[in-house]
Amino acid sequence: MGMAADLKQVLGELDQEAFIELLGKLVGEAEHLQNNPPDLIPEEDKVVRHVLDVLAPYGTSNGEPLVINHVSYVPGRGNLIVEYPGTEPNNVVSFVGMHMDVVTANPEEWDFDPFSLSIDGDKLRGRGTTDCLGHVALLTLLLKKLAVAKPALKSSVYAIFIASEENSSIPGIGVDQLYEDGYFDNLHRGPLYWVDTADSQPCIGTGGMIPWRFNVTGRLFHSGLPNKAINPLELSMEALKPIQLQFYKDFPRHPKEEEYGFQVPSTMKPTQWSYPGGGINQIPGECLICGDVRLTPFYSINDVQKKLQESIQYWNDNIEKLDTRGPASKYVLPEENARGTLSITFDESFGGIACDRDSRGYKMLAKATEEVIGKVEPFSITGSLPLVAKLKEEGFDVQCIGYGLTATYHANNEYCNLSDMANGYKVFASVLSQAEE
Questions:
Q1: pLDDT tens-digit profile of 261-298?
Q2: Is 101 a catalytic residue?
């Protein structure tokens, strides 16, 4: 059973009925998996429970082959590491990144219930079907098939289902802590497939992510006396524009972005705007704009943070040069001894990745993709994945793949195609078969 051709035959095709049943249970938990602290804290163990319902009967505690490790750093928010052991310690294939939390969904904005699986032809609809509960179900059934068939493999097969991927504001819960605690130490011995992209093709490039908070202080005053106020809303709008424009001068489209097929270059943009509240007849004393930089892997996070700090310091020192809005709009009030200020802070950031297309892992994935899908069309995107840059820097053969749909990632009316997930199963079966050659 160790031969590659035999292994493909053993693994066969995805059990679609079992896949739909499991995915239905996972999407049924999605309301409790939404990750948007402090309001919404996911309970990933609700997913772990369903995965273990499938896999625990085949665990070592029952005399079966699967080595199952439920690793929790926060109660109710576990990670799950499952190994199908091989015979040669230096041969490993790993599948990582199938996360068990989801982004938020407002049922009023959806055409169907986001928190229950519905089926429309080939479409499997609900929050998490593409990102990333469909992949959780896919790897669960691949592991079950291995455990039932018990082929004698040279390579150990690992799957790491992770918590807390959709929000990085609370570290030490998911894959970052697993890495620090040594759970990845064996995985450098073979290809590591990060399973959280889309469109059934190798994703050979991702973006880094630098979340930023731009705090602007002014002077609170009655809106009927705007000459006594410094309006932080106006100041933030006028200051952010030249700061963004300077970013695009400092980090223009890089020549390698075309080579890797990045759809967009590095970007800096606001995504949230908040202020302390108060009456509509009151100019507030401060406001906060939050956003992110999505950085192609050919630029340095440290360089970006340094340049942004320099840019903000320049406009802090030269705040009088910013455009104002009308005759009563000022950012410095000498008679009041008041001056507007700008500052920026950064949340936890992580880098992007440019995958090695000459590696064994990529060649196996490309061959499997061509076999199953009929073509290989690698692409890159400035969506971000945690840890991948650090893994690549430390010599891991990291490749990124997924079988959801980019068009529905983080979107209303999310769905995946059952046929795509079934193809993904066959691609992974081919990869494992090649690993045995």
A1: 998 999 999 999 998 889 999 999 999 999 999 999 99
A2: yes
